[in-house]
Structure prediction request, 117 residues.
Amino acid sequence: MIALRPDLKVMLASQPVDFRKSVHTLSALVSEALHTSPYDGTVFVFRSKRSDRVKLLAWDGSGMVLVTKWLHEGHFTWPPIRDGAVHLSATQLAMLVDGLEWTRVSPKPVKQPAVVG
Prediction:
């Protein structure tokens, strides 16, 4: 299972992928295109050419997990299509999967100014 914890690493592949790809093909894509190990606990997010579908790939310690979601209405918010990946926070991932606008949420907590006086 994918646990959303504050230290969770999330990488969103910017290029859309063919949604017929299996767990094995997506794992190979992580290794070859994103130059990282699919077995390091990072959640990898893939987008389809249609903006209403998302796939999540993650190693949970005992096996590979593949989650697919289609929205009946509306669409997911995606960054501009380009090469490479975008890093997200656990909060941004939760918002993305819920179909919410996640791009306005800071990926890292903002430091509060020190209290003076």
Observations:
- The mean pLDDT is 85.
- The chain has one domain: 10-97.
